[in-house]
Amino acid sequence: MLDLVLAVAHHLLIFAVFGVLLAEFVALRGLTSSDAVARIAAVDLWYGVLATLIVIVGFSRAVFAAKGWSYYSHNAFFWAKLATFAVIGLLSIRPTLTFVRWRRSGTVPDKAAIQPLRMYLHIELTLFAFLLVFAAAMARGYGEF
Fold it and tell me: In this structure, which of 13, 38, 142, 143 has its CB flanked by the most CB atoms within 10 Å?
């Protein structure tokens, strides 16, 4: 039962993070007030909370669930999935810091300031497709070494 609970939690958290990133991406289009800036900064806080929970649940799943650490630690797709998640996390730093700066200053950014952040979020969203591919390959035993 623990395996099922951790798997469901892990998948729900991944989809929640994707939803948060997509919400940020869409919200950047209509960023026209300081209230909208505060909302996107609040949504971005959820990104951090959910990403932290993904790491906790994911590693709990790898260590305590049915397949165990020996299965995951010897799988190239597991490491590719972790690396991709880490890249997504690193790419999120600039948008997060920018949202916080905008919220603190109370300013509404112009389109020139928004465009680079949309690019970061677009790349992050695109990388999520790789997470799904790596997870599917790993679950089917591909990538064992």
Answer: 13
Task: Give the count of domains, the chain.
Answer: 1
134 domain residue, yes or no:
yes
The residue length of the chain stands at 145
The token pair at 25 is 């991406």
Q: Are 138 and 78 in contact (CB under 8 A)?
A: yes
- In a domain, residue 39? The reply is yes
**143 phi and psi angles, rounded to 5 deg:** 90, 5
Query: For the whole model, what pTM was predicted?
Result: 0.91
How far is residue 98's CA from residue 58's CA, in Å, rounded to a whole number? 28
User: Quick check: is 31 in a domain?
Assistant: yes
Contacts of 33 (CB under 8 A, 6+ apart): 108
Query: Can you tell me the distance from the alpha carbon of 124 to that of 46, in angstroms, rounded to the nearest whole number?
Result: 16
